[in-house]
Specification:
14-stranded antiparallel barrel
Length: 354
C-alpha cells in the first residue's frame, strides 16, 4: 500500500501510479489448490485463474497518470463433504463452488506535491459464480437430490474508490484506500435436476465499505519493512435486498513483510538485481462456520526477476496457509497459491511541465 515501485503497477493503491515513469502494463495469472476437511472426509480442487491486468500512462511525468484494467473482486474455489446430511435417512452431501467476480476500472492518479499523491478509480462489477449441491442417500428407497445454482452479477452503475500516498520522512511512507459501498443486481438461476424444475429471479446486493491502510519503512537503502491492515464490514454492510445475512462476519486481514531491493549499479550481477520478498498474514474470514469466526493465517515468498535491463520484470509469488479449525468450525482448509505477474514498459508519450 505504501511503497512506490517504478516497474510494477500497484493494484491496491493507484496513488502510487504517479511514480511510474513510462507507459506500463501489468498482467497477472495464478494457480491455486485447496483441500477442505470435515470429520472423516475431505475434498480438494485445483484451478488456474486470470488475476487481472492494468495499463498506466504517465501524462505528466511524476504528476498525472491515467489508466484502466480489470481486477478480481473474489475468486471462489471451494468444496466440502458433509456426512449424515439427509432428512429421514443417512446421506452424504457434496458442495462445490466455483466462479469469479471482477471489477472493470478506470483510474487516475495525481501528485500535487512531490511527497503526496491521490488515486481515483471508477469501477463496474460483473461476474458469474456456480455452485453444485448433491445429496446421495445410503437408503436406495430415497431418491438422490442434485441442485445447481448459477449467479450472474451486474453493477447498477460505476462505484468509486480513493487512495492516497504520503512520504512522512525520507525513509517512512504511508498509504490508505477507501472503497464506498456498492449496489449491484444478481440474476439467480436455480435448477433442480432431480425434480426437473427451474427458478429464476433478480435480487439486489450491496457490497460493504472497504478500508485499507499500510506503511513502509526503509531503514537501509536496499531493505524495506512494510505492513497493511484491510477491513471490510461484511456483517452489517453486505445486504441482500436490503437485509443482512446472519452467517456473515466482519473481515480483516493483517499482513507484514520484508523486501530486499535490487542493486542500482548498472553492471551488477543478475542475482544482485532480483527483488527478494517474504511475509506473513493473519485474518478473519467474512463468514461464520458452526456459528463461530473462521480465522486464516499463512506465509508468502516472492521473487522479482528483471527482464531487459530492469525495464520489465516477472514477479513470482508463492503463498500457503490454513483457514478454519475442525473442532471450532467443523471443517478446515489448507490452501496454496502460485501467482505470476509480468510488467513491461514502453516510452510512449510523457509531457514534463516542470
Amino acid at each position: 500500500m505504501a511503497f512506490p515501485d517504478s516497474v510494477t503497477l500497484n493494484q491496491m493503491n493507484f496513488a502510487l501510479w504517479t511514480h511510474v515513469p513510462r507507459t506500463t502494463f501489468t498482467l497477472n495469472v495464478g494457480y491455486q489448490g485447496l483441500e477442505s476437511k470435515a470429520p472423516g472426509n475431505k475434498i480438494g480442487s485445483i484451478d488456474g485463474s486470470f488475476l487481472g491486468g492494468f495499463l498506466a500512462v504517465p501524462v505528466i511525468e511524476k504528476k498525472v497518470s491515467i489508466g484502466f484494467g480489470i481486477q478480481p473482486k473474489s475468486i471462489n474455489n471451494q468444496g466440502f463433504v458433509i456426512r449424515d446430511a439427509g432428512v429421514g435417512a443417512k446421506a452424504t452431501q457434496t458442495i462445490q463452488t466455483k466462479g469469479t467476480l471482477s471489477e472493470v476500472k478506470l483510474v487516475a492518479a495525481w501528485s500535487p506535491i512531490p511527497d503526496f499523491s491521490l488515486g481515483f478509480s471508477a469501477y463496474y462489477i460483473l461476474g458469474k459464480i456456480r455452485d453444485n449441491t448433491t445429496i446421495n442417500y445410503l437408503d436406495l428407497s430415497y431418491a438422490d437430490i442434485s441442485v445447481r445454482n448459477e449467479y450472474h452479477f451486474y453493477g447498477n452503475g460505476p462505484s468509486f474508490e480513493v487512495s492516497s500516498y504520503l512520504r512522512l520522512t525520507p525513509r517512512l511512507t504511508i498509504g490508505a484506500r477507501a472503497k464506498i459501498p456498492t449496489k449491484i443486481t444478481v440474476y439467480t438461476k436455480q435448477e433442480s435436476i432431480t425434480a426437473q424444475t427451474t427458478v429464476k429471479e433478480f435480487q439486489e446486493v450491496t457490497f460493504p465499505l472497504n478500508l485499507t491502510i499500510g506503511f513502509a519503512w526503509q531503514p537501509f537503502e536496499r531493505f524495506v519493512i512494510g505492513g497493511d491492515i484491510d477491513y471490510i464490514d461484511w456483517q452489517s454492510g453486505y445486504l441482500f435486498n436490503g437485509l443482512p445475512l446472519s452467517y456473515m462476519n466482519n473481515n480483516y486481514r493483517i499482513g507484514a513483510g520484508v523486501e530486499f531491493k535490487p542493486s542500482r549499479r548498472r553492471l551488477a550481477a543478475y542475482l544482485n538485481r532480483i527483488n527478494y520478498r517474504a511475509g506473513v498474514f493473519y485474518g478473519q474470514m467474512n463468514f461464520l462456520a458452526n456459528n463461530q469466526p473462521v480465522n486464516e493465517y499463512g506465509v508468502s515468498f516472492g521473487l522479482g526477476l528483471p527482464i531487459l535491463r530492469g525495464v520489465s520484470r516477472l514477479d513470482v509469488a508463492f503463498q500457503a496457509g490454513k483457514r478454519g479449525d475442525i473442532v471450532t468450525n467443523g471443517l478446515s482448509e489448507m490452501f496454496f497459491r502460485l501467482n505470476f505477474s509480468l510488467s513491461a514498459s514502453e516510452l510512449w508519450f510523457v509531457r514534463d511541465d516542470r
